Amino acid sequence: MLTATQRIRVEWAHCDPAGIIFNPHYYIWMDSGTHALLQAAGFDLIGQTHDDNLFRGCPLVASNMAFKRPLYFGDVTLLSSRVEKFGNTSLVVAHEFRQGENPNPVAVGQEVRVWGYSDAEQPAKLIAKVVPEEIRAMLSVDKTVDVSV
């Protein structure tokens, strides 16, 4: 499966007063990892939402995290994001955070996302549609892309 990696520096704003990572930031970074993965696959999520007024992207429907050890102010973590599994209308994106050469992750998480559209009759209603074969193929390529800025 395609893997998108990005390096993230833990800044002071990510930390509690003791300089230890405030764990909700991992969820923000997982969201960023999913969007980076789609971009690395060649899918223009922003453009698609502008081109198709009913397309709502990949809304998050579930997520979880396991924290192994903390990160601190100034640490750099490597986030790796990849699709772990495709459902009919969903995809499970696995995220792993590592630090330096340590093979043991500092945190691991998953997101369940659906391929979302608004109902044409009721625009506030979200409908999960089948993940297109083209998207499945784009995300199934066996390579790693570093999307760090």
How does this model look, in words?
The chain is 21% helix and 39% strand. The chain starts with a strand and ends with a strand. With 149 residues, the protein is an alpha+beta fold. It contains 3 helices and 8 strands; from the N terminus they run βααββββββαβ. The chain is globular and about 50 Å long. Strands 1, 2, 3, 4, 5, 6, 7 and 8 form an 8-stranded mixed beta sheet that branches. It has a single domain, classed as Roll (Thiol Ester Dehydrase, Chain A), CATH 3.10.129.10.
The CATH architecture is: Roll
Question: Treating each run of at least 4 consecutive H or I residues as one helix, how many helices?
Answer: 3
Residue fraction in strands = 35-45%
Model regions low in confidence, pLDDT < 50 over at least 5 residues: none
Query: What Rg do the Cα atoms give?
Result: 16 Å
Helix content: 10-25%
Major sheet summary line: 8 strands, mixed
Q: What is the approximate shape?
A: globular
| SSE series | EHHEEEEEEHE
CATH class: Alpha Beta
What is the assigned CATH homologous superfamily? Hotdog Thioesterase
Number of structural domains = 1
* Multimeric organization: single chain
Mean pLDDT: 95
What class do helices, strands and sheet pairing give?
Answer: alpha+beta
- Named CATH topology: Thiol Ester Dehydrase, Chain A
Note the gap between the termini.
22 Å
Quick take:
By secondary structure, the protein is an alpha+beta fold. The chain is built from three helices and eight strands, in the order E-H-H-E-E-E-E-E-E-H-E.
